[in-house]
Amino acid sequence: MDTKKEKSAVILCFLLLVALVAVIILGNIKNNKENKNIVVKSEDKKVSLQKEDKKVNEKEKKDLYIKLKNKEDISICIIGDSIANSEGVIKQENNWNEKLKKYIENTYNSKVTIEHIINNGGLSERLDLYNKNKKQYDLILLCSGYNDRNAKIEEFGPKYENFLNNIIERNDKTEIFLVVENSLRKFDKVPNEIKKIKEYYELNLIDLREAFADSPKPYKQLTKDNINPNDDGYDLYSTAIFDKIKLNNKENKKIDYKVKDKLYK
User: Fold this and answer.
1) pTM for this one?
2) Which residue in 180, 127, 183, 179 sits closest to 155, CA to CA?
3) Which residues form the SGNH hydrolase-type esterase domain (predicted)?
4) What angle do CA 231, 219, 239 make, to 5 degrees?
5) H or E stretch at 20
6) What 8-state DSSP symbol labels residue 220?
7) Which of residues 36 and 243 earns the better pLDDT score?
8) Structure confidence at residue 225 (pLDDT)
9) C-alpha distances in angstroms, 4 versus 7, 9, 15, 117?
10) Each residue of 135-151: pLDDT tens digit?
11) Mean pLDDT on 1-24
12) CB-hemisphere CA count at 13 Å for 90?
């Protein structure tokens, strides 16, 4: 009898132990599922937050014309040679950079900051300086002039396109004006290449050769040496560029430039 009781007790203990193990295993499985659900929900929430942050950042990125309409501060970078920096101007108030700044501030009540990347070397040197700069701008004026006249076209085109792509990749809301200086009036190869790139990327072209030709004053009266503008010549720079800004703003231009397949393979 005692033996039967002992066997029953052993069996009962065994069953209780099995039940306990089963409870523990089932509990762990449940916890693992709950933890996985928590992780999944956490990841989903993280992705959702990232998407929301991206949307907020996109909304915060405003182009030049939106900022002008809102009377917000804007930044301009002028890249080029000495003419891009109004070198040789007699009266400082005729500096075309400063006149452009005043035109914008007086018309749109936006504070304007202008920075320069000036180098009398070639396009490669200016690109190197721009890449080291790391800043973002609302408007970039990429000026080409007399020092570019003898550039090898097979090299100039790809370098110029690379320069533009670097600008667009840094900030696709940056407005870009391609400026051909009057000093290239007798040299068509580089301006023609710039026009081709302008058409492909749908950018703005400011051709000062045309502005000088359309002026009622003879060309000699607009330059000091048939190359560098005098004060009257520099006035055409600020006027032509500001007129383009006004026109684009009036037409409610939206800036959303894209890096395309390379024009130069």
Assistant:
1) 0.78
2) 127
3) 79-236
4) 50
5) helix 2-60
6) G
7) 243
8) 95
9) 5, 9, 16, 101
10) 999 999 999 999 999 99
11) 66
12) 9
